[in-house]
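Re-run with default settings, no changes from the original entry. Doing this only to confirm the output is reproducible before filing.
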Amino acid sequence: MFKIQSVTGRMFIGVMTGLIIGALVITMSPIFGFSLFSMFGFGTLITFVLMGLTLGLMGMFDYHPIFGFKMRWWIRGAVAGFLFTLMYILLSHDSLEVIMQSNIVSWTGLSSPFWTLIDGVIIGLFMGYMETKFAGQGSNLPLK
């Protein structure tokens, strides 16, 4: 996809992945009783776009600056996915409870909105993998 590995490429891949995931949430929100253009849907879109953007910038750090351990793509992706989804859950807890109580989700037995953390970690891992595979990682990445 990208001939030259760069930070801009990482950010582009992260933002596009976040846009796709956010658009899926917006299009599926009427199933759960939200309007198509609800604040919940747009908040989800912004959260995942910012998660992809942050992961793109985090790809420059392949070595932790304070603790001194090697940060692989799966560590960065899982941690960023967990933290962004935790913030997302804390800010939209009531809306996520409505989704978890719906017939589509309630049959699984997952009644707490905090089960969404698993989804966030998986999405973070996917974003981190795609960014690293197609645009590289490390402190020697060019900006363009």
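The chain has one domain: 7-135. The first helix runs from residue 7 to 28.
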